[in-house]
Amino acid sequence: MKGAEAIIKALKAEGVDIIFGYPGGAMLPFYDALYESDLIHILTRHEQAAAHAEEGYARASGKAGVCVSTSGPGATNLVTGIATAYADSSPVIAITGQVPTKLIGNDAFQEIDALGIFMPITKHNYQIKKVEEIPEVIRASFEIATTGRPGPVHIDLPKDIQTAEFDIEKYPIPAKIDLPGYKPKTKGHPLQIKKAMKLIEESERPVILAGGGVILSQAYNELLLFAEILKIPVATTLMGKGCFPEEHPLSLGMAGMHGTKAANYAINESDVLIAIGCRFSDRVTGDINSFAPDAKIIHIDIDPAEIGKNVRVDIPIVGDAKNVLNDMLNLINTIKIKNREDWLSRIKYLQKISIPLMDFNDKPIKPQKFVKELREVLKEIDSNLKNTIITTDVGQNQMWMAHYFKVLSPRSFISSGGLGTMGFGFPAGIGAKIAKPYKNVICVTGDGGFLMNSQELATIREYDIPIVICIFDNRTLGMVYQWQNLYYGKRQSQVHLGESPDFVKLAESYGIKADRITSPDEIKEKLRDAILSGEPYLLDVVIDPAEALPMVPPGGKITEFVYPERVEPQPKSIKFKNISEKNIEEKSY
Fold this sequence. Notes:
Layout: H1 3-13, E1 18-21, H2 28-35, E2 40-43, H3 47-61, E3 65-69, H4 73-87, E4 92-98, H5 114-118, E5 124-127, H6 134-146, E6 153-158, H7 159-163, H8 190-202, E7 206-210, H9 212-216, H10 220-230, E8 234-236, E9 251-254, H11 261-269, E10 272-276, H12 282-285, E11 296-301, E12 315-318, H13 321-330, H14 341-353, H15 367-381, E13 388-392, H16 396-404, E14 413-414, H17 425-435, E15 440-446, H18 447-452, H19 457-462, E16 468-473, H20 478-487, H21 503-509, E17 513-517, H22 523-532, E18 537-542, H23 576-580
Parallel strand pairs: 1-2, 1-3, 3-4, 4-6, 5-6, 7-8, 7-10, 8-9, 10-11, 11-12, 13-14, 13-15, 15-16, 16-18, 17-18
Helix pairs in contact: 1-2, 1-6, 3-4, 3-17, 10-13, 11-14, 15-16, 15-22
């Protein structure tokens, strides 16, 4: 067979049945082989959307996602999506076409140094130089992407490798591999685990901070059992949302810059902080010097590079969260837990003073009101939200949802965390729906983020992918607008999007049902219609542009919330006519 056929066979051997991509010259042999294959290919309308869709697929399913692009600009268009996956430890495989091997380095048409570009944003990086390497590279890529701390792997695929003859009898698929330099440590050190349990036994005010690693290691059942037996309240990071049911009495919600008072105050007052599968990003810790000032810190993570990187750690435990929590559960009978009733009473008080989800009836619509109504409608349809997936974009829409939409199960809240990528939510929703076709997928996005990948309306129409897109329409880049009002003297610079486009007409031009919500009393009915339609659907939700959540200032103490005052939009209208009249001198040479 040809090399291209061998790649498809190797992908199928890894359990791949769906890939996302966009063809081009350097990948034509692959796409020709795809024609005879039963591998399903989703043609996105931009390569960045293919990368986000494969991550949505991976995050919803737990399997590795696969995206494909051509060389040159096709490969560079994948970069943002792969960097997003790298920041959030998502297992994805990116295959990029490349010019023939004899032309590499000659600045051939659509040649780019893909290895160099992808090197800092991938867990590992391959360029196949011989057709015989295909089985081993594909097998190793999936092994690396999905084990240890997951992450993206890039494969650069020259065109001549795709057309070369491949001897499958000599090089069987799947390959047997040995990766001597890659041995992720999954079991925690027993002595460190005993030390951690001793510290927990002595603590009076313990708090768990759970991150995305709990979801990646499937340690959510162990976390729930551990927290309930030891009566320890649980805060999560943005990436950890869903690893602990947020309606549970021990749930503190999300911690950090845009977190809840309950989570931030509890961490600040804790005497032992048990961090599991999180990396202590600046958005969680704020001022490092004042973070959890009285706490001894236990940090459990599979990646040793994360331990001690950002915060001081008293008891490091390198290992898979599920394995370590199981080992800790096995030791529970060996310790005596102090009476923590005073601490649990304090936790109840902190939960009570956290900002409630109020039932606003103002016009324009308050985002809080929409989140409340969305959750109520979804619970009518799916009482425990087990068959619901929320994807968000980045910005205010993301924080309204993260703060107020209580998630009950893992892999049901998908958002860009580490890179904070606008344009993520919509294509990630496409991937999530394809991964879990029987679940309701709701994409909540801002108008700015949606416009970065709005062309994917064509994708959901062509493939009949029934996701519901809810656009928070305030005609501003909301989070930037909020920061400018808080920290830049209310000087609103380049954050107003204007009145174009009409999102309803835009959706309808793609053949997609759409409606506009301008009044609070319309929300529930129109949401029900959209979700129960079984079709791609867009809702343009006109929200109050001046509404903003309290936040912790960048680099500030996580207990020092700033409450934004109401600042109305102050758009500046600059037209082409004004630009051309600005004494622009026309020169001839």
